[in-house]
């Protein structure tokens, strides 16, 4: 490699950020996004940057490469890379560094690749653009990176277009692209957040593999402390634009000092707060031999289950397992190819258009992304009030009174009734979605991945709220998720799905503690744990499983 | 700081454009009160130079140019507004209906508009104006329908983008009517892109009316209209007289101003919505 002699010895200071303040324009005023951040990154070190959405971690991560997003700027403070002040460097010189000495891996590989070019061309492009080496040498190096990252042979994969490759592979290809120039610093911005949990393990294992011993330094931005624990030497914890805690990984997770970090560490410990619904078991939802197809493609194969009133069923599976299609069939959004869905004493029509208003009212659905499930032009009162108007003909003060009551029920301030939904945070939006469902006074609520777009602590609060509501209102939940840990304290029973079929059903404790199904065990082990050697253990177990 | 500078520059441009549009509106509304002479009143010899009596000179028949520009604002602008509005009501309602009311409706409406679009607009316009006569109403209807077919496409595409969002699905699952879905869920979110389209369409319509007038098929003499005023005075260019440039400049000023305002509107409201 061209710059082998150029690399600083491990431990030498590489990046120095001092008293950095970043502001962003909001309307007509500058708002501080990052306040007074100071940290160092040594050569060969992996630094984790932890925080919830809106904490300023991505902004700080990018700013440590001297880059600010449109509308943001460095108001004061300095960023030094080696002996150069990145905050003062003209754009042209920064461009010469980017992709070469400092590179970036974005959250969504799908959105970051140009769909019109083959992968190989895009992976070697930085090396050619920066004149690091010739084409042949770049291809050899890319081939080596592909091997290190556990990707198929570059001759095969490099000829493909981005849409022809799975999400996990594409993410690793993007890492290869970031590493092609053998940079000093790689900034990883939530590189596994968009992936399934089992795929996530492959990707972080690959990242660890290529980073360790390469002498590269990395800044790993994530909301998941357990995940960062597996990779980083040190972590910075951010909240509301400030660095609240900094330290070696082991110190931070074993003895967190700041209250927020302590909450993060504790968030993974789930309390069993199960509704002990014994006694009479009245059938609510009954699904019989339901299959769902899109065209000739069968996505759900012959699924049957009963969900008694007042109980919670969780359907767990990775993307492509058919769990969301099953939920959509139950809600009547897609008609099942065959099979019956019974609710209470009556059979439901296959499509919701044919169902009675009463049936529509009694089954409500909450979706994954609160940003697109609320009309941005409506106010909180419009959103929650509409089912009251529509199903019960309530108007004016009566409607508003009930909206306020519902807001209290979901633990939001009743004065929020006039706020536009766009002004709310992600967690508040999802609570409003829950209130909208509750306004219809349903018997069953289908929750389709409702916590996966939320920060861990917010998701935790959401689950607690749902548990509490179930006790008070005798609701049934059908909980669709890819994350085992999110339903541990909530579900009475779980169904594990893979490739459209059910691989296991059972009471939650049984499945969690003593499942014999290999796929269920893989899923269970893929939930990141706040332990230093979690990744090592998972990888070892996998090797054993493959060998045996 | 750079941002602030360009922002102020932008608002200056927007103020200028708004002043021009406002001016045209006032002229159009109060033409008989403002114009110094009558619309078709012959006051002097042909192509007189500007003077204190005739601020913009006179035209090919010796009519006061300023008065005709003022009346022209009423005729050309008025018809353009009416035709664009008709095209919008027509195009947007059918476009949204296509998306909300299901595949059968979509196919029927879509194919009808395909037929309208398959013939060149100018040919259709010339043909219908020849058949039904060159009245104001026919002009508005012809332009409204042909332009409406184009707006239908834009409205439908906009509505499809919104229709895939979960909040529309939630409303459908509640059992909401087509009317509610269009008025409460789709329309508020389509407002910004449709306003941008309105600005663009208005300019096309204005130019199209001028084109028809220039060809002699628009408004008939002696009605003052910017397009036909260019045609009537076109010969003057040969004598180095600037008279035909006056209505041409009026058309250009109004078109550009409306575009500037729409750009400002979209960049402000469009961006604010995405960032929130």
Task: Please explain how this structure is put together.
Chain A is 37% helix and 25% strand. Chain A has 548 residues and is α/β, with parallel strands linked by helices. Chain A is globular and about 75 Å long. Chain B has one domain: MetI-like fold (Orthogonal Bundle), CATH 1.10.3720.10. The longest helix of chain B has 37 residues, at 178-214. Chain B has helices at 2-29, 31-34, 65-100, 103-118, 121-132, 136-163, 166-174, 178-214, 226-232, 245-275. Chain B is mainly α and 276 residues long. The model of chain B is unreliable at 1-6 and 271-276 (pLDDT under 50). The interface between A and B is medium-sized, with 27 and 19 residues.
Features:
heterodimer; A: 548 residues; alpha/beta; 6-stranded mixed beta sheet; 22 helices; 20 strands; 25% strand; globular; disordered N terminus; B: 276 residues; mainly alpha; MetI-like fold; disordered C terminus
């Amino acid at each position: 490699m061209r710059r082998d002699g150029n690399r600083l010895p491990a431990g030498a200071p590489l990046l120095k950020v001092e008293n950095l303040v970043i502001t962003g324009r909001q309307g007509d005023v500058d708002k501080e996004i990052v306040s007074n951040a100071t940290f160092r990154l040594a050569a060969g070190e992996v630094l984790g940057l932890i925080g919830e959405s809106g904490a300023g971690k991505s902004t700080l991560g990018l700013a440590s490469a001297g880059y600010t997003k449109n509308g943001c700027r460095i108001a004061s403070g300095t960023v030094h890379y080696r002996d150069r002040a990145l905050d003062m460097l003209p754009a042209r010189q920064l461009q010469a560094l980017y992709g070469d000495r400092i590179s970036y891996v974005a959250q969504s590989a799908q959105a970051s690749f140009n769909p019109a070019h083959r992968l190989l061309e895009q992976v070697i492009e930085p090396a050619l653009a920066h004149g690091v080496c010739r084409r042949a040498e770049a291809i050899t190096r890319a081939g080596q990176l592909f091997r290190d990252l556990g990707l198929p042979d570059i001759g095969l994969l490099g000829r493909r277009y981005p849409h022809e490759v799975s999400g996990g592979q594409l993410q690793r290809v993007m890492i290869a692209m970031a590493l092609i120039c053998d940079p000093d610093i790689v900034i990883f911005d939530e590189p596994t957040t968009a992936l399934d949990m089992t795929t996530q393990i492959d990707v972080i294992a690959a990242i660890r593999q290529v980073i360790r011993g390469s002498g590269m330094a990395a800044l790993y931005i994530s909301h998941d402390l357990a995940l960062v624990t597996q990779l980083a030497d040190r972590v910075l914890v951010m909240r509301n634009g400030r660095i609240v805690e900094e330290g070696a990984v082991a110190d931070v997770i074993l003895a967190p000092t700041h209250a927020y970090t302590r909450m993060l560490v504790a968030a993974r410990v789930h309390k069993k707060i199960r509704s002990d619904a014994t006694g009479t078991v009245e059938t609510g939802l009954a699904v019989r031999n339901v299959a769902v197809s899109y065209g000739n493609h069968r996505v759900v194969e012959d699924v049957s289950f009963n969900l008694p009133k007042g109980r919670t069923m969780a359907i767990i599976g990775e993307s492509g397992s058919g769990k969301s299609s099953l939920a959509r069939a139950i809600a009547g959004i897609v008609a099942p190819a065959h099979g019956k869905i019974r609710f209470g004493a009556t059979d439901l029509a296959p499509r919701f258009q044919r169902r009675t208003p009463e049936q529509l009212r009694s089954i409500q659905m909450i979706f994954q992304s609160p940003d697109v499930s609320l009309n941005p032009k409506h106010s909180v009162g419009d959103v929650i009030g509409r089912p009251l108007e529509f199903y019960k003909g309530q108007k004016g003060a009566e409607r508003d009174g009930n909206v306020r009551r519902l807001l209290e029920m979901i633990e939001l301030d009743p004065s929020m009734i006039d706020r536009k939904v766009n002004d709310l945070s992600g967690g508040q939006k999802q609570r409003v979605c829950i209130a909208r469902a509750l306004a219809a006074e349903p018997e069953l609520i289908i929750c389709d991945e409702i916590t996966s777009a939320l920060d861990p602590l917010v998701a935790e609060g959401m689950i607690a709220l749902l548990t509490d509501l179930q006790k008070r209102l005798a609701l049934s939940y059908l909980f669709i998720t890819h994350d085992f840990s999110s339903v541990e304290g909530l579900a009475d029973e779980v169904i594990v799905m893979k490739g459209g079929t059910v691989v296991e059903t059972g009471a939650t404790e049984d499945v969690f503690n003593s499942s014999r199904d290999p796929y269920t065990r893989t899923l269970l082990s893929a939930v990141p744990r706040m332990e230093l050697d979690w990744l090592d253990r998972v990888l070892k177990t996998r090797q054993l499983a493959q060998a045996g | 700081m750079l941002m602030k500078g360009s922002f102020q520059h932008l608002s200056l441009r927007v103020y200028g454009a708004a002043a021009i549009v406002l001016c045209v509106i006032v002229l159009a509304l109060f033409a008989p009160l403002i114009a110094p002479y009558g619309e078709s009143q012959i006051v002097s010899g042909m192509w007189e130079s500007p003077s204190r009596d005739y601020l913009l000179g006179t035209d090919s028949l010796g009519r006061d140019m300023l008065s005709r520009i003022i009346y022209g604002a009423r005729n050309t602008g008025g018809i353009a507004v009416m035709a664009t509005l008709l095209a919008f009501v027509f195009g947007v309602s059918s476009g949204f209906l296509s998306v909300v009311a299901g595949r059968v409706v979509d196919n029927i409406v879509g194919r009808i508009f395909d037929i309208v679009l398959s013939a060149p607009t100018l040919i259709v316009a010339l043909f219908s104006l020849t058949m039904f006569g060159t009245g104001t109403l026919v002009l508005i209807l012809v332009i409204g329908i042909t332009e409406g077919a184009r707006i239908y496409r834009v409205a439908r595409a906009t509505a499809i983008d919104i229709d895939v969002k979960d909040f529309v699905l939630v409303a459908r699952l509640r059992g909401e009517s087509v009317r509610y879905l269009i008025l409460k869920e789709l329309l508020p979110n389509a407002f910004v892109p449709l306003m941008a389209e309105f600005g663009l369409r208005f300019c096309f319509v204005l130019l199209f009316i001028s084109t028809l007038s220039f060809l002699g098929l628009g408004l008939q003499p002696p009605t003052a209209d910017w397009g036909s005023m260019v045609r009537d005075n076109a010969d003057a260019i040969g004598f180095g007289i600037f008279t035909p440039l006056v209505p041409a400049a009026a058309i250009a000023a109004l078109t550009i101003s409306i575009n500037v305002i729409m750009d400002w509107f979209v960049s402000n409201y469009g961006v604010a919505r995405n960032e929130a």
